[in-house]
Amino acid sequence: MTARRQLWSDRLRFDMGAALAICAALALVPLFVSGPYALGIILVSIYFAIIALGWNLLAGYTGQFSLAPAAFAMIGGYTTALLGHYLHVPLALGIPAAIVSAALFGWVLGKLVLNLSGPYLSLTTLAFAEIARVVIGNSHEFTRGDQGMHVATLTQSRIGYYYIFLGTLVAVLVLLYGLLRGRLGRFMMAVRDDPVGASSRGIDVVRIKMIAFCVSCALCGLAGSLYGTFSQLVSPELGLLQQTGLVLSMVVIGGMSSLTGALLGALLVYLSSEWLRGFGDVQIIVFALLVILFARYLPGGLWGLAARLLQRGRA
Amino acid sequence: MLALDLLANGLIYGCFYALMAVGLAMIFGVLKVVNFAHGEFFMIGAYTYVLVSLKLGVPPWLALPGAAIAGALLGWLVERLLMRPLYAGYASWGFMKDEYAVVVTFGLSLLLINLVDKIVGPYSFRGPPLIDVGRFALGPVMLTGQKAIAAVIAIALMIALALFIKRSVWGLQIQAVAQNRLGASLAGIDATRTTSLIFIVSGMLAALSGALLAPLVNPSPDIGAFPAVKSYVIVVLGGMGSIWGAMIAALILGVSEAFFSVYVSYDYRDAFGLFILVAVLLLRPQGLLGEKGREV
Amino acid sequence: MLFACLRPLAALSIATLFALPALAAEPILIGVSLTQSPPGSVVQGTQVKDGMEIVKDLVNAKGGVIGRPLKLVYEDNQGIPEKGRAAVEKLITSDKVVALAGGHQSSVCLAEIEVAHRYKVPYVNTNCWSDEVRKRGYPEVFNTSPYNTLVSSSMATTLATMGVKRVVAFAENTDYGIGQAKLTGEILKQKAPQIDYKYETLDRTSKDFTAAILPLRANPPDVIVLSMLPPAAYLVMNQIYEQGLAPSSKTILYDGSSLADYPDFWQNVKEAGKYMLSFALYHPQMKQTPLATEIAAEYKKRTGNEVNRLVLQAADSLELVIQGLQAAKSTEPDTLLKAMQAMKFDSLRGVSNFSTAAGYGFQQWLDIPFVIYELTAEKQPIAQTVVIQAPGQKFDPSKIVRPAK
Known about the structure:
The structure holds 3 protein chains of 3 kinds. Chain B is mainly alpha-helical. Chain B is built from 11 helices and 2 strands. In chain B, strands 1-2 form a two-stranded antiparallel ribbon. By secondary structure, chain C is of the alpha/beta class. Chain C folds into 2 domains: 14-146 and 289-352, Response regulator (Rossmann fold); 149-280 and 375-399, Rossmann fold (3-Layer(aba) Sandwich). Chain C is built from 13 helices and 14 strands. Chain C has helices at 2-23, 42-61, 81-93, 106-119, 131-135, 148-162, 175-191, 210-213, 232-242, 265-269, 290-303, 309-328, 333-342, and strands at 28-34, 70-76, 99-101, 123-125, 141-143, 166-172, 196-202, 223-227, 252-255, 277-280, 345-347, 350-352, 371-374, 386-389. Chain C is globular, with a radius of gyration of 23 Å. The A-B interface holds A 59, 63, 65, 67, 112, 115-120, 122-124, 126-128, 130-131, 134-135, 138, 192-193, 242, 245, 248-249, 251-252, 256, 281-282, 284-285, 287-289, 291-292, 295-296, 299-300 and B 28, 32-34, 36, 81-82, 85, 90, 92-93, 95-96, 98-100, 102-104, 106-108, 110-111, 114-115, 118, 229, 232-233, 236, 240, 267-268, 270-271, 274-275, 277-278, 281-282, 285, 296.
């Protein structure tokens, strides 16, 4: 193995190790904290973490800066809800169906933006996301509009759901590690850094982009569907641009292009937004200020900083 | 006649959209980043106009420049404090400027909306009209004094802007920086100062459009969403960096929205613009008047 | 000598014994989930909060409820159903509130009552009009809010009595708006099938509705019904006025959301609000209890605005919980629930009890008093409006004031 490849796989391993360590810590949390509310908060931050990881794959690793992750979570959630409501499809099929439908829509979106880059790509994904949200929100006869739709649930137990989400998170991490570890990961980054150069070296840029879109959107759809079963409700607000902005903030604050960064960012940002409730009226103002300051002064994100410090000892 | 009514109304709103969008076209053309906070410039302009005229008792004609100043100031601050990292050589953000711009402007948008909500309060105000003429009939079409005056001012401002860009020294500098930042600075143009100027003008135009529309849309803290999305549709439809394109696209959007909502559906009126955006990007990515050779 | 010392000592100990409960009085926590930031209606949330704060202060000044002070715990649901669900869950499981009140947006209510039902905590519906909230039939939900069937049947009766020929309704694209518009149409078809009624759904986040208004100019209807909330409602009114459509000698507006007394109504519509008929839930001519008058004075002192129906509705919901606590003499959820179900509720607008009929009337205060009045001047105080239908009486079309041209 060349030195460069060694460096990359070392870094990825370190990254994965740290992410799994965080998951292990999360697994132990119910021993110390038992209130359903507290567990619920961590659970919701895991929902955001899965979306953040999915988005990070698409944007951080493959350079496709999409503004639609929240919309895909909404699509996944509504797939499960609609199938359950109209066709009485049980969750065992409903949740996989959400993954598939999100992947399909992701494929469509990928095809739409194949020849676009930069702000054009972002705008198209933004338009796609808004169209999806408006169509779902305004189709009253079909989707009950802003009232939302009821979704069945996997279990009534809060701790049960906690471990379901945690387990899904670990599975997602393992999946991403497997994807990134091999050549696919390096090809994705090649597409991100220099698409023309990559294709001149024989990399099938189109295929890489499509894979990134499908996997990323599928993950978002999975998260949305699971979340719908947890809260037993899906509503168009799942796909608000505000939610996408939140996900982006999490990844940026946590650290782009790393697994742990996305995970850490999601946990920290969501937990601190809950903690800020204590500030009462100004909670969102403080949150917004923090987002701006972090983006402005800490570009590598927290994990970037931490990794640099932790890895100082290594070669 | 209904069609005439819709046409007239669509054109008038098109003028307002154009004023909103033209500032964004400038920023987009130069920096090529998505700005989540453009709608908030509009909102701040609208609120400045309303508060200055209602609370300070200033006549509306004077409140208008007040709004312009507020917008210019905000634009300058945003560029100075938040946007510099995009091009002033901050290495670690190098290839990630899109992400940075989105996150920072997302945070800014959230901050401004909630600051205004807390400081001014959530109740909306109908801005005072510039002239006291109520509704009047212009042929078969019903207008109000405010709509007519605001449309005229909007058109005048855009003509002024077009002349500014085409004829003045600063305008030429702006064009140069938009075409090729490095080349422009090699030619001796201070790119940073030019960018600052672009933000100031953009902020001012957006704020003015907010002030002109304040009597028509009853500003509330979250009023910014509506001009923001429309502006993006217009900028893409018109062609990146083309100000004439943005103006023409705005008129087209205004008129087609009006006809679409009557003959197809009121509910999806705002989604219609988004469909246009996607269609344009697929079929003619350079928009109406954008340059063809550009890498898109 | 011993006795001389003992007596003051005894008095002191007895006095301390009595003071101890007051010193150790733990506040009773009541959860309030409302909208305090966009995208929901912050205007409504503010009015609800104001109303509840006043009642809480009045009650605490008089010694609290069953010897304990009242404390309101607020959560911001931003008008998003999912956030409402999370907010109510936090209030119940983490803050351990004894009851919930303050819901003012139907779609959020529907999400919140699920949680209240799961944990069996009383939930007072302050202002969610959608019949769906009642149709779920949850025993934890107490509806002091107006309901769509009430408003729609009254509107249908009004329209039939007016003897009009054509009615157009503008409904916002929410459960409340579409629900009301549809229901009015259905009832109207039975009462007065000769009336041509149709409704248009409008996007409540849009700012320009002229396209929906222009087609009406060629053939103006007799009444334009608004099943919309601010800010869209104000914009529609302004744009209808701009097009010269209403108010005119032929066409008048009818407000089906009781928004004519919102604090920001006149500053947003100005001359477009004249001659509008409003289905209203508060009018000084209505029977006022002393408490209602006290609240009105306090609201005027605190905000400078005249009291309105939403503020009183909020006050009413808190009153219901307070009376429930007094009847139950405990904060145990089961006891409280049973007491609330059994008692007669002495509200600010009359004594009522909750119907137990299934459907839209489940645990709903059915006979909410209402008036229909007409605004005849800008910035008109409610007391000076023209009452077209006094509470409990028939709608009298001859009282309607029309503009000259």
